[in-house]
């Protein structure tokens, strides 16, 4: 294990918080990062569609969102979402780039529809990038902010941490078959950390040249670089706690709603409770 890389990961954990965006405020912070990156910087989506400066689409309601926050300033630094799919609800890459998927990838997706997902809308705010050659990529290093050198060095892990957070969500939701549309440099960047996506089709010009990739979340956990394992385990532990608390609150709300229905019998009550655990 490289001591330098271990220290970098430790610094990242010191300077940044990675969380599930479960409140309306945190989800809006994700949407605003996306607006700054996808609309203002790169023009992938027209700014005129989002007068409130919150970029969102129809897939957000079927997604889990993650937010990366700079601890000392409270600034939102990055975000990512994990989109779930069902037989009647395709993934974004199927909707917009379906022609790029090869036959084996489509078969893999169809055979595992209820345990598949897509990592989507990963963005790093431009205030957290630096080198001149990287200010026109969504996953660069920081620039233009008066942070310490140690902080700036840790900013390069924001994109990797976003992928680790999406992996943790995939594990927690049982959506182990993960898909993503990526620019060519990103799989190479992730492979340095032991995250080896497999090509699932051909390149297509959609918001720039990119191609579909896939991976099993268990492979990510098993083969990630040792220095990232502690970061992933910390993210997974935090998410597990948040996930359990959120699920408990939802179940309590469902029970309270049922109790307010006086004509609902015990069989219906316990039948619904059982469904909530299916």
Automatic annotation (TrEMBL):
The protein's name: PEP-CTERM/exosortase system-associated acyltransferase
UniProt KW Transferase keyword: yes
- Which Gene Ontology molecular function entries are recorded, alphabetically? acyltransferase activity
The species is Sediminihaliea albiluteola
Question: Which key words are in the record?
Answer: Acyltransferase, Transferase
One Pfam family assigned to this protein is Acetyltransf_5
Q: Does the keyword Transferase apply?
A: yes
Mind telling me which Gene3D superfamilies this protein's record contains?
A: 3.40.630.30
Matching SUPFAM superfamilies: Acyl-CoA N-acyltransferases (Nat) (SSF55729)
């Amino acid at each position: 294990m490289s001591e330098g890389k271990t220290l970098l990961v430790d610094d990242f954990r010191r300077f940044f918080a990675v969380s599930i965006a479960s409140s309306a405020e945190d989800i809006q912070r994700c949407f605003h990062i996306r607006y700054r990156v996808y609309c203002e910087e790169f023009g992938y989506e027209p700014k005129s569609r989002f007068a409130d400066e919150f970029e969102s689409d129809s897939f957000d309601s079927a997604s889990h969102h993650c937010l990366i926050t700079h601890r000392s300033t409270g600034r939102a630094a990055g975000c990512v979402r994990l989109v779930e799919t069902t037989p009647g609800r395709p993934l974004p890459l199927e909707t917009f780039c379906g022609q790029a998927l090869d036959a084996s990838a489509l078969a893999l997706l169809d055979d595992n529809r209820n345990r598949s997902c897509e990592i989507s809308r990963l963005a790093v705010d431009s205030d957290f990038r630096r080198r001149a050659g990287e200010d026109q990529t969504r996953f660069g290093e920081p620039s233009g902010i008066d942070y310490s050198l140690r902080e700036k060095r840790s900013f390069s892990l924001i994109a990797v941490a976003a992928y680790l957070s999406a992996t943790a969500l995939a594990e927690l939701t049982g959506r182990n078959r993960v898909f993503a549309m990526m620019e060519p440099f990103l799989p190479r960047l992730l492979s340095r950390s032991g995250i080896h996506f497999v090509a699932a089709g051909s390149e297509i010009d959609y918001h720039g040249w990119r191609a579909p990739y896939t991976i099993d979340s268990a492979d990510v956990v098993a083969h990630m670089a040792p220095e990232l394992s502690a970061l992933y385990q910390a993210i997974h532990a935090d998410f597990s706690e948040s996930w359990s608390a959120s699920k408990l609150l939802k179940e309590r709300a469902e029970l309270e709603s049922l109790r307010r229905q006086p004509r609902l019998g015990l069989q219906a009550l316990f039948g619904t409770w059982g469904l909530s655990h299916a």
